Amino acid sequence: MIKLLIADDEALVCIGLQSMLKWEQYNIEIVGIAHNGAQEEEMIDTLRPDIVISDIKMPIKTGLQVADSVRKKYGRVPLFIILTSYEEFEYARSAIEVQAADYLVKLELTPETLAASIQRAITLLGEYQTIESYPKLVHRGNLQAERDKFFVRLFNNLFENKNQYLLQQEDLDLDLSESAYVVCTCRILGPDTVPPRGDKLVALCSSTVQMAKDTLTSIRPCHVTSLDLRNFAVTLPVCGTDPQLWMPDTQKLLADMASVLHNYFNVTIIGAIGFAVEDPYLLRESYLAARKALPAAVKAHSFVFFSEGKPPEQDFPLFDFSESRSEIRRAFEEMDTQALYAIISRMIEIFDGRSDLLVPATDAACNILYMATSLLADGEEIVEHIFEHDPEGYRAIYQMHTIEEIAGWLVCFRDGVSEMLSTRRQSYKEQIVKNVQEYIKRNLGSKLSLNQVADVFNFSPNYLSHLFSKTAKVNYVEYITETKISAAKEMMLRGEGRIYEISQKLGYESAFYFSKVFKKVTGMSPREYIQQAEAGAASERGVQENGRG
C-alpha cells in the first residue's frame, strides 16, 4: 500500500480530504493527520509516508519549510502535494525547489482535481522508485545528480583518461551516440523584483534550470547541467560539425527556450554556443569555446556563437587549472589534507591583492568547488557543512565581486575541508571500500580488473589497490576470487546450471580455469563440492525420515 499523510491546521479540510476519494481504489492508506508543521515533520520521520498532502500556512512551520527540510533528509520521497489559497499561489510557484508533485488551490478542490493530482504523484513515485533501484556507486542519491557530476567532470577535464570516461558513461546509462554535439553556456539575468541573494533567488534559479531542462528535452534529447546559481550548460546533439547545418535550428531552439522562461519567470536568458565536436569526450573544447564567447553574449544581451577567427571579448584569461588539477585530484583521493591545504594556500597567495585577477580567481574557486563535489563521495554535503553559517551557503561564491571576497571564500573552504577530511579520514576510506565491495558483488559476471573498477570510482588503480589492501585487510584480487567462489557455491547448491554455465555467469574465460581456481580456494573440485553437498543433503533427509519413523 502507498502511505499518505495529510497535514492542515483546519480540521474540516482534513476531514474533507479523507472523505473526498475512495483511497483504497488507489492502493493508498492514510497513515496520519497532522495539524501543524512540527507535527507533520515528526510524523514523516516516524511513519515514512510516500505522499504528503500539506497546507502551506500552518502553525510552527509552514508546509514549504517542512518539505524543504524533509527533502534534504530523505531525497525525492515523500512526494508533496501543496495546498494553497489564491493569494498564496504565486508564492507557491516560486518555491519549486521543494520539488512538489503538484499545487492545488483549496477553493477549486474537487474529487476530480484531487484524483488527477494523486494519479500524477503515483506515477512520479513509480518513476522515482525505478531510478532509486538503479545500482548505487558512491552515495548515489539519484541518477540525475550523478549524471550532472559526469558532465561537470567532462567540462572541467576531471577524467584521468578516456577509458574512465567511457566506463562512467556506460554505468550512468548515458546515450552519447549522436553524430556530433555542441555545448551552450547559459546565464540567468533578472528579474529586478527578486533580491540579488537569498532563498527567493535560489528558488528562482533552480526552478528556471528545471524548466529549461523540461522545455528542451520535450523537443530534442539533450543534457542540461547546472553549473552554479546563475549559470547552466546545455549539451545538444547536432547533425554534424559544419555550423551551417546546425546553427539555425540551434539558434531557434535556444530562443524558444528563453521565451518560455521569460514568460513564466520574467527572467532573461543569454548564452554562448561553442563549436561542434564529433567525439563527446572532447566536449570540454566546445565548453571552453562557449565560455570564451560568453562575455560577448553578455554585451549583446542575447545568444552568440563562438567564432574561431575572432578574439574573445574578455579582458582576462580563463584560469588554467591544468597544473594544479593532478595535485588536487591526488590530495582528494588520498585524503592528503596537508597537500590540499598547501595547494589552496599557494593559490590564495597568487591572487592576494591582485584585483586584476578577479575573473581567474573566481574560476579557480569554482573549479575547486567542482572537484570537491565531483571527486569526494559526499562532496556536496561536505561543502554545504563548511558554509552552513553563511546565509548563502557555498553559493556565496557566485555573489562575490572583489578579490578579497574570493580569497576569503577560499580560506574558509581550505580550513573547513582540511578539518573535516582529517577527522573523518578512516570512516571515509572504509565507506569507499564498502562501496567498491558492493559494486563487485553486483557485477560478478564481469572481469572486474583493478583498472576498470578504479575508473568507475574515479580513482587511480595504485591508490585503490593500496586503499583496499589496507582497509579491507585483503588483497583486491583475492577478495574478488573469494567473492566469486562464494557465489559459485551458492549457485551450485541452488542448482543454477551446470559447472560451465556457472563459470560463464561469473565471468571466467573457461570452465577449466574456473575449476582450477575453485579447487585452489576450497581444496576440492566443483564436481566434488556438488557431490559432497548432495551426500550431505541425502544424509539430512535420512535423519529426518528416521526421526518421523
Structure description:
The protein has 549 residues and is α/β, with parallel strands linked by helices. It has four domains: 2-133, Response regulator (Rossmann fold), CATH 3.40.50; 141-305, Reverse transcriptase/Diguanylate cyclase domain (Alpha-Beta Plaits), CATH 3.30.70.270; 321-427; 444-539, Arc Repressor Mutant, subunit A (Orthogonal Bundle), CATH 1.10.10.60. The protein is 57% helix and 11% strand. The chain has helices at residues 11-20, 37-47, 63-74, 89-93, 111-132, 143-155, 162-171, 199-217, 243-265, 283-300, 322-333, 337-351, 358-375, 379-386, 403-423, 425-442, 450-456, 461-472, 476-493, 499-505, 511-522, 526-548; strands at residues 2-7, 28-34, 51-55, 79-84, 102-105, 180-189, 223-226, 231-238, 268-273, 303-305. The strands form two sheets. The protein has a five-stranded parallel β-sheet, with helices on both faces. It has a five-stranded mixed β-sheet with strand order 7-8-6-9-10, with helices on both faces. It is globular. The two termini are 46 Å apart. The model is unreliable at 130-141 and 309-319 (pLDDT under 50). Pfam families: HTH_18, Response_reg. One of its GO terms (biological process) is phosphorelay signal transduction system.
